[in-house]
Every structure is written in C-alpha cells, then in structure tokens.
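Page 42, continued from yesterday. The earlier attempt failed because a stray header line got pasted into the input along with the sequence. Redoing it now with the clean sequence only.
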Amino acid sequence: MKIGEISKPRFEFRTFGQDFEEESYKMSRLSVPVPEKVWERESDEIYILSRTNDINNTKVRDGKMDIKTYVQTVDGLEQWNPLMKGEFPISAKVLKDEVYPAFQVEVPNFDKDEYTFDEFIDMVKANPDLQAVKVHKHRFGYMVNNTICEVADVLINGAHVVTINSESTEIDDIKKTLSDLGLEEVENINYLQAIKRVIGMIDKPLAN
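This time it went through. Structure tokens are written below.
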C-alpha cells in the first residue's frame, strides 16, 4: 500500500482512550519512512451525530461534507465505504435524498433550493436526535507492516482523547501490526462510536 493511493476498500482497526504512549512509541520505531506531508497534520472538523444511526459517519471539513457507510466486520476489523461527498452551499435535493436518510431521522421541510453550512447546522440543532460536534485532530502518520497507521491527539468539543489505528486492504497485515504493538485485546472503536461516548450519547467508556 501507498499512503494516499486509491485502492480497494480498506479494513481498519482504531481505538480511543487516554493513554497509548507505549503503543505509540512502538509504532514510531517500527514504521518505515513515510511522506513528509503525513508526518504531522492538523484539521478542524464537524461531525454530525444521530441518535438513530450507527452505520453512517458524517463529517464536514473545509466546507465539504463526507459521508462513509459501514459495510462489514471481518475478524474484528471494520470496513467502510464512501457514501457521498458534497460541498456547501448544498442543494435541498441532496439533503432530502442522501444526507437526512443517512442520519435515519425524519426529513424536514425545505423551503429553499440550497443551504449554506450555517443554515444546515441550524437545521441540525433544531432536531433533538442530531448533534453537531467540533473535532480537532492533530495526527502523526506512520507505516507498519504495509498498513497505514496513525496516532492522533483529538479534541472532541474540547475533551482530549488519543486515538491509534492501523488500516489496510489486507487483514493479516493489520493483525500482525496489532500483535507487534500490543493492541490485540483492545476494543475496536470507530470515530462515530468514540464521539458518541464522549458526549454521552452512548453510555460506555473508551478503551482506557
């Protein structure tokens, strides 16, 4: 695999907690050299969480909406595929036909042909089953056993957590990476689940 390449859908292990210092150190030492552009990255994103949906992951970054949908779990590893991508202002038709069905909530009445980001967020806030969450990511990229890896400091509405992950098209490569890092017994927690746990939408702790 190459970082940034278009490939067949990947499988992923990811987890969240307060302390992965030992695992992060091992990841940095085991990593082969990676492109400088992924050494360290920061981003600010808005995740839209729905109480009624756990299979579609919606986020907005740099004025663009990205929705991924859960496909399957194989050997404890999750596979996600792109569901849609869109830009703001966004059309009422896309909101009606793609975005709100992904949230699995009642579709509101639209009185305009298109909506700005702020107008969309106002609609989200008006629905008691939806919540917009601010997420800041400070990511450090690696490559271990031919799997794309990262460690990141994440602020979820200001609450600090740490995430560590390994993803690849090859399940066995991820399994070897988890073994090398000492993560085999750690719960696989995706962003959707982690954010819900932090904001209290799901009553369950993170991995540590």
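Notes: Residues 92-103 form the longest helix (12 residues).
Reminder to self: strip header lines before submitting.
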